[in-house]
Amino acid sequence: MISKRIIPCLDVRDGRVVKGVNFAGIKDVADPVAMAKKYNEAGADELVFYDITASHEARGLFTDILQAVAAQVFIPLTVGGGINTIEDFDRVLKCGADKVSVNSGAVRNPQLIKAGAERYGSQCVVLSVDVKRVGDAWHVFTKGGREDTGLDALAWIAQGEALGAGELVINSMDTDGVKNGFDLELLQAVSEISALPIIASGGAGKLADFKDLFENPKVDAGLAASIFHYDEIPIPVLKQYLKDEGIPVRL
Predict the structure, then answer these.
(1) pTM for the whole thing?
(2) pLDDT tens, 25-82?
(3) Could you confirm whether 11 is annotated as catalytic?
(4) What is the SS3 assignment for the chain?
(5) What is the distance between the alpha carbons of residues 105 and 142, in angstroms, rounded to a whole number?
(6) Which of 51, 88, 98, 130 is catalytic?
(7) φ, ψ dihedrals at 104, nearest 5°
(8) Is 130 a catalytic residue?
């Protein structure tokens, strides 16, 4: 069985790591370079770096901070925020990213997914989807969760897979920062319509939340922020717990 991945997420705004609840109430946490180094040494399997206001502010991602972060990590680094063109792919990859996360830019121009996959390979293209329940449906939100596109999330994920995305990050806005567990219903629905590796984001609060998450065999990774940022659950402790529960992880 393939090892499950534990992935910290650095949401960066104005050069600092920040965190909120339900994509709101953003608070300052730490320096991204120091935090990247900490996670690299703690045994994180990968690291995700999001410039969370790039799309909303209609600007490119801050590459100076990205370069400094990339210099501290020797694990796969996924980077997103303000990715709107194939030139943006090239720019962040040259700064040290291993994979490029597309979100708002891909919603505006779905062919961006295809272009990225054709030039760099599907394994390089991560489709990140910010999802929130609206009535009886799940909608795709963009611009850091500010804008309801009206798109059905499951239909958009299927389209992204068909265009060449190689991996999914499913960000549940409903569970983000709440710490009551991952959005298992949403993740189950995604796993039923997609064959892509799924990274689950939003809701981790205790060790057992990751055990519950990985009971779905199609979920490949758990992504979290505040529980790692504030050392509520150290990564080595989480991995040992999962191993003891019979879940394959890299120690």
Answers:
(1) 0.92
(2) 566 668 889 999 999 999 999 999 988 566 556 555 567 888 998 999 999 999 998 8
(3) yes
(4) CCCEEEEEEEEEECCEEEEEECCEEEEEEECHHHHHHHHHHHCCCCEEEEECCCCCCCCCCCHHHHHHHHCCCCCCEEEECCCCCHHHHHHHHHCCCCEEEECHHHHHCCHHHHHHHHHHCHHHEEEEEEEEEECCEEEEEECCCCEEEEEEHHHHHHHHHHHCCCEEEEEECCCCCCCCCCCHHHHHHHHHHCCCCEEEECCCCCHHHHHHHCCCCCEEEEEECHHHHCCCCCHHHHHHHHHHCCCCECC
(5) 9
(6) 130
(7) -60, -40
(8) yes
Options 11, 98, 183, 209, the catalytic residue: 11
**CA-CA distance, 241 to 247, in Å (whole number)?**
9
Q: What is the pLDDT of residues 129-168, one digit of tens each?
A: 999 999 999 999 998 788 999 999 999 999 999 999 999 9
The token pair that represents 174 in the structure block:
């409903």
Q: What length does the chain have?
A: 251
In this structure, the number of other CB atoms found within 10 A of the CB of residue 40 comes to 17
Percent of the chain with pLDDT over 70: 91
Instruction: Identify whether the C-beta of residue 19 lies closer than 8 Å to the C-beta of residue 11.
Output: yes
Can you read off the two tokens belonging to residue 199? 């990274």
